């Protein structure tokens, strides 16, 4: 895995969002029984907001990919040195957008991992409690399914 903590030169920086989720996770892990319900509710709100951010980033990435596709089509099917000279700007644009998409995907992965860690903290904290409502278990499963669906949507750029 080539994820690192450096801020991308261009694109997006979600380190503040990841830090926010990590803070919520720590608060849940350290919460006593009286604080746990509120901290968990805050965590669910945080996950919901960050999943929305992931969705927005995926939409932007698709826009970048569409822009690359348009630039590639501007070549008119000719991929030789002579035609490349007439499309230098498009070539640079394709390379730049490709790097931007790569950075977005890396940042989305970090955000999804932070969401998963937060949800795992909630599940682990409630694991030993016999009175966990079925609705809470269902909610946790629904969020987990949502994260799996989000992961499937990320695969669009590999096509």
Q: Taking all residues together, what is the mean pLDDT?
A: 76
Which stretches of 5+ consecutive residues score pLDDT under 50?
A: 1-9
Q: Rg to the nearest angstrom? A: 20 Å
Query: End-to-end distance, in Å?
Result: 20 Å
Main sheet attributes: strand count, strand direction, barrel closure: none
Query: What percentage of the residues does DSSP assign to strands (E)?
Result: under 5%
Number of strands: 0
Helix segment tally: 5
Task: Please tell me what the overall shape is.
Answer: elongated
Strand/helix succession: HHHHH
Helical fraction equals over 70%
- Secondary-structure-derived class: mainly alpha
Report on the structure:
The chain has five helices and no strands. By secondary structure, the chain is an all-alpha fold. Helix 2 (33-73) runs parallel beside helix 5 (134-154). It starts with 14 loop residues before the first helix and ends in a 5-residue tail after the last helix.
């Amino acid at each position: 895995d080539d994820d690192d903590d450096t801020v991308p030169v261009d694109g997006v920086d979600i380190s503040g969002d990841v830090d926010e989720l990590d803070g919520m996770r720590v608060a849940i892990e350290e919460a006593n029984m009286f604080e746990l319900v509120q901290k968990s509710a805050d965590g669910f709100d945080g996950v919901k907001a960050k999943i929305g951010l992931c969705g927005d980033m995926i939409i932007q990435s698709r826009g970048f990919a569409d822009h690359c596709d348009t630039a590639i089509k501007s070549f008119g099917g000719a991929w030789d040195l002579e035609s490349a000279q007439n499309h230098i700007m498009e070539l640079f644009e394709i390379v730049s957008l490709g790097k931007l998409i790569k950075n977005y995907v890396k940042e989305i992965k970090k955000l999804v991992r932070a969401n998963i860690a937060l949800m795992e903290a909630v599940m682990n904290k409630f694991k030993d409690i016999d009175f966990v409502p079925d609705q809470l278990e269902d909610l946790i499963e629904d969020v987990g399914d949502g994260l799996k669906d989000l992961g499937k949507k990320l695969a669009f750029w590999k096509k």
